Amino acid sequence: MKWPTDRLGPLRYPSPLNLSQQDDDYVANFVDDDARVIVDGDWHQLQRCISTGGTPEYFELSGPRANLFFQPERVRAAIVTCGGLCPGLNNVIRGLVMQLFYHYGVRDILGVRYGFQGMTVKYGGTAIALTPEVVENIHAFGGSYLGSSRGPQSSVELADFLQRRSINMLFVIGGDGSLRGARAILDECRNRGYEAAIVGIPKTIDNDIEYIDRSFGFNTAVEKASEVLACAHVEARGAMNGIGLVKLMGRYSGYIASRATLASGTVNCVLIPELPFDLHGRHGFLTHLEMRLKNRGHAVVAVAEGAGQHLFALERPETDASGNPRLNDIGVFLRETILDHFARKEIAVTLKYFDPSYIIRSASANTEDNIYCTELAQHAVHTAFAGRTGVIVGMVRNAYVMIPLDVVTAHRRIVDTDGPEWLAVLQSTGQAITMMNDSEPETGHRIQNNEIQGM
Amino acid sequence: MKWPTDRLGPLRYPSPLNLSQQDDDYVANFVDDDARVIVDGDWHQLQRCISTGGTPEYFELSGPRANLFFQPERVRAAIVTCGGLCPGLNNVIRGLVMQLFYHYGVRDILGVRYGFQGMTVKYGGTAIALTPEVVENIHAFGGSYLGSSRGPQSSVELADFLQRRSINMLFVIGGDGSLRGARAILDECRNRGYEAAIVGIPKTIDNDIEYIDRSFGFNTAVEKASEVLACAHVEARGAMNGIGLVKLMGRYSGYIASRATLASGTVNCVLIPELPFDLHGRHGFLTHLEMRLKNRGHAVVAVAEGAGQHLFALERPETDASGNPRLNDIGVFLRETILDHFARKEIAVTLKYFDPSYIIRSASANTEDNIYCTELAQHAVHTAFAGRTGVIVGMVRNAYVMIPLDVVTAHRRIVDTDGPEWLAVLQSTGQAITMMNDSEPETGHRIQNNEIQGM
Amino acid sequence: MKWPTDRLGPLRYPSPLNLSQQDDDYVANFVDDDARVIVDGDWHQLQRCISTGGTPEYFELSGPRANLFFQPERVRAAIVTCGGLCPGLNNVIRGLVMQLFYHYGVRDILGVRYGFQGMTVKYGGTAIALTPEVVENIHAFGGSYLGSSRGPQSSVELADFLQRRSINMLFVIGGDGSLRGARAILDECRNRGYEAAIVGIPKTIDNDIEYIDRSFGFNTAVEKASEVLACAHVEARGAMNGIGLVKLMGRYSGYIASRATLASGTVNCVLIPELPFDLHGRHGFLTHLEMRLKNRGHAVVAVAEGAGQHLFALERPETDASGNPRLNDIGVFLRETILDHFARKEIAVTLKYFDPSYIIRSASANTEDNIYCTELAQHAVHTAFAGRTGVIVGMVRNAYVMIPLDVVTAHRRIVDTDGPEWLAVLQSTGQAITMMNDSEPETGHRIQNNEIQGM
Amino acid sequence: MKWPTDRLGPLRYPSPLNLSQQDDDYVANFVDDDARVIVDGDWHQLQRCISTGGTPEYFELSGPRANLFFQPERVRAAIVTCGGLCPGLNNVIRGLVMQLFYHYGVRDILGVRYGFQGMTVKYGGTAIALTPEVVENIHAFGGSYLGSSRGPQSSVELADFLQRRSINMLFVIGGDGSLRGARAILDECRNRGYEAAIVGIPKTIDNDIEYIDRSFGFNTAVEKASEVLACAHVEARGAMNGIGLVKLMGRYSGYIASRATLASGTVNCVLIPELPFDLHGRHGFLTHLEMRLKNRGHAVVAVAEGAGQHLFALERPETDASGNPRLNDIGVFLRETILDHFARKEIAVTLKYFDPSYIIRSASANTEDNIYCTELAQHAVHTAFAGRTGVIVGMVRNAYVMIPLDVVTAHRRIVDTDGPEWLAVLQSTGQAITMMNDSEPETGHRIQNNEIQGM
Q1: ipTM of the complex
Q2: What is the pTM of this model?
């Protein structure tokens, strides 16, 4: 059996929510504290599991409990947003405040400025009080009302911040690294015997969180990205042998590039980190691109920022403030490589390069993310009041569940190139099923010598 | 065991799709012809099923088969759109044509004009040839490129149309009634021994199709509806005791009103068909509205068109061309009732009434629906080539499945007022959990005498 | 000579603005207090004027004066928004506050709630203090942050409000009636010897203010209206003999209908108040509509709310709260008349009717109106500081000018059906140049008997 | 007297347009062939002109003439789009075709592919026939349906193209260089005695055409640019000492940057080519930026691509395909300079850089440009039929006029830094009136040594 989440203790206080515990009475219900959904919906696999005497894996359902761990009047909550901007941050902040204030009656809500940094000794005095009036309209704007920052901070300082201010609920809106940071705070609190519900709402515009249907803001990012793909299409069609090349977000997972491609219907080739490809040779990318131009006179290419890293030389020492390795810039590389290729072949092309990351991530949440963020915030509050800690809330096949922080940060979700989503993308672009000459793709070493130096 | 779908016969011809049957080879895979997902994800219920020796129910997965029932070069396909407009119709049409043409090599695709009517003897000559060039840009526009019509037609005439033109694949994009019509065509074809794959793509802007995650166009409709709710909020705030009243689509199911409310974050009360309510009395709607105005000076109310039908007198004899009973107009009724109520109480209010249905349904598909429609179209074509007939394709908890037409039209999906979705709505609006004075709501008879006549 | 504006007195105080009075020094300039632009740009008419010894008419230029009538530290300003909502109200409010506060150093700015009503004895206590922080983000939203109301109020009470609170600058954002109200306040103040600069920013979504290039919000209204026309086009094309009928704002002036028609490119006939038309007969509207359906299978009709009032019986006794006569509803009338016409002829049509006024007027300002409102607000403040009173500011052939309130409210601007703007509309729709059978149009009397009763 | 335009000959043929020549008959009027508007609206200047016996300068009005130079049935028209993409190109193409076809009855309309290049011997065979069906929906998309190219071509070849195909109307949609090219074609045609109306519609996204109110597409560009400024604001606010830096189009004229700044209301400093500035020193840009960060914690800077060129070393040898000198990249330069400045001062900042040019120029036309492009196209056709040649059509203070090609290409329009438009921008940003330490700005030489090398 798997993935039960940590509980701070028994549910001792009746919920202030005036809900029902019976069906068909026209009143919304509390959720049973042991409600669960199965993890894997594959029927044959389930049969195999059963026939071998196994028990199907499950997630615990989130939702309002009839009894709570915390007394609302004793709750001091804090909210922090960490890492890069992402559509929906303000919706989550607003949703948390509204739910805490109006439905559970919490009056003491703190907004931490500029991420975990704002909980450190140096900056810890800048937090602000959050009320419904303050957050009422913030969801009309992109970004984070609280501000954000990158990089880890001392978990001792962060736990100090909680303890010193008697904060017993901390909502961490952040990515991979920040969720690990949240876990470290929890461990530090535990060592001290300080009881706090620490609940994460995973934020990753790349949509690379394992298990959950999608991360908030992803839907908006796809919308904005597909608008840029449409621009690239316009530019490509506007010139003889026009090429529109768009670099999109996606360090390890090509979700934005894939979904935006599907949405736009105008991309002819999409390159993602999950799929190696050759540049040259009979099946290489450049050969396909050349053929496309010959047949149709223009082409649109979308490339995820993490794609084609095998084309670069192997040493990649640098990391950014969040500890992520700095990627080589595949967009600029492809632009130069394409121009060089056609220059050698004396084929006149017009290439327009787009790098719209900041435009995408600073957008305000679209309708779907408005809803998702509101619901995530509501569930995060239910979860904290139920005394669960060290968990995130997220939607798994349409149900809101709780998942332990360590489980959710253990692996990264990537596009399954065997699966139906990737097939749909391929069928939308009409690109070659594979762009490798052999089973092993070209590597950076060869490229370095042959291509880059030639320019 | 449940819901296997009809098959025209064995899969005899190899697919022209160049896919793989093994994992981890960087090539997208065919889908096994017996792939299945379970219907219900509740873990406890599954345990009960297993422990009593039952077999969990399943849906069959849609997707490309390695072998096909139809030889592509012998396929003549037809596409028809029926019933009211809905965002995404053109995306589905475009997706079907692109998939048939480019991936399965079908060159003979017919577009039926103006719904089933366009297959009748009287109008059967107006169908048009569809090619990638014709449909290339139609998804930039709302509505149906083919046109649509309401109402049933003789299944004999419709089957004649197929047989006379040797059409062996028919894609029906339509609602409840049209899917029943599709079923009737299939029955008629069977009686004649005429083999045709009839595949439905369910279209209902109300999102009231059972089992599937959502119907196409619904996401766009919610987006457009929430924009109108924002307008209502502006109007409400612009005047002393301002009331914005918005009637939204939803004959039997309050999904659009509910989701748009969640998305907008500015609605103070939403009324849906699933939830009876009283107008008067201590817990009645008008009492709550009055209180809201007193406390905050303005209010926004969203009402689904099918809400509050119990408030009208019982006889409702009329039906529209599609056979749907004509609803009483709850929007106009509420407007008059509210104005009358406050006039009696000598409270000056300013009410602005919005009825944006045509603006919503004529929108072009948003990003999410662009993707969904494209994938639905791809799966509909896979399904037809696999020789399945009398089915629809749809997404069920993120997986594309096939469901028999009779199963999917047997019940209507409604908002579960016990469930988490409705709770999320309630918590967003802050409205009363119930607006009934007793367990039985007011009825129309009383209203007729007391309210309407008084105006 | 014409249209000099009222001055409160000589310009005694140096402006706090750090501008220049010389050219080519890279520093923006003050505007001469007697700067003027000519009213009429027609060259031949100007030659005639000159040759007969006349002096061309002029408007006085608005803009920052090197010296001011008011000392900034003694200014108490008030802002009031009157009448129906219009895009850009919040931009004007914000612009006024920003300009007063940051550039002239005014710290005492009052926002009147709910129009002139909020200055009356009964409601005069509800005004709020306005600062840059308060108004910073209000332009992201439609409507009026201050609220509005209709109808005249006692000029004595309104002058009392100013005097009692020592307000010496009043900015009135309102239509025709409100600008007359502003004039009455000024007269009342003068009678009392109370010195106040009363500056109007004309607000009319119908764009029917004489002389000025356009009223603020009009551009946004046209944008929103053209979106609805696109919806009507989608609906019209979606059905056999589909008709999309859209009623747009425009009580006496068909500007919104005309410009939105031009913008959309999909309207086949537009009806405006300025142009009488017959319904029946060889040249009548219905004949043209019928022909259009016969030739093309669908039609889109835009009608301004004030069009075709001659088709109704003559008595129109009612007026609304602002004193405007209530118009007969030409939209509903046309819908019924069209349906009746085709029913008699046994031609099946599908008509969809749109009445989007509230959706249009509640929109937030678009880019062009963002700019225009900001500049209007800046000029209104310059004007008040220059001691001009009883004036509006507006753009006349790209120059910001001041026009006396009585001049600007003396006539209403209407579409010149002889002129190039209307010709452009006609050529866009392809409609008949005239839809009258004789030189006199049909009148309401005939319609009443023949048409309405028949339904 | 000034600016009469060339005429091919007398107006011999009656117009097919069924217009009127009298007022107040409810029928739109023809325009007199000598209708004129004055060039300068300044009243005092006009008085001076008159008093010294001068005659005011004028433009000739465009519009439908009662008699035409060309017989419609003998017209063969061609349309060509040249230079970089710009919103509205497709609207102009569509408008020309619709006007030629429906109103003047021209059936022979050619679309040249890929600019002047498509009229050369090498590519001259690729032109396509244009009909209303072909262009019906193209205005929903950005870019040019016909494609475009940069750079001059032999006027002999271009005149050959016209003569060989008997084209007697050529519509050139292009910028400065292309309009000079159009003039050269006309000269070449004249030398050969070949009669053709060559009419330009000036295209420049920078809005730097002298005399006309604005160039088409500019309004849309400002809208898109202001959206990006909003993104920059979000990014700036999202981090401690966040800086959003946006490079916008504007080689010699800062109109896009200025207007977008006004529209957004969130920019703190805008830099344009017309205004020199220092980087360092008491009044320098960096000093102001540092102060802004200190006071408010974030800043948004907009910079036109042609701004600050004095900061670079003087040699700039390169030119692009259109012959425009390649500018030094002020955006990248500022980014590096700012980062370097704060690094030296050990102030942690987060700078996000935006370069959205292609996203802006590939947009489809907004409402205002939809209208403007349609009207420009209508007037271009009226102008050609009136036998005017070597002219452009454009709007001058709300009137459509004709201006000779040489007049309009003689100077470039720039932002008047003494005038009210620039003042409005300054007051919106609150930036320093001047950012120069002395009357002479810093030059590139100094920068090269001190700044760049330090990085």
Answers
A1: 0.93
A2: 0.95
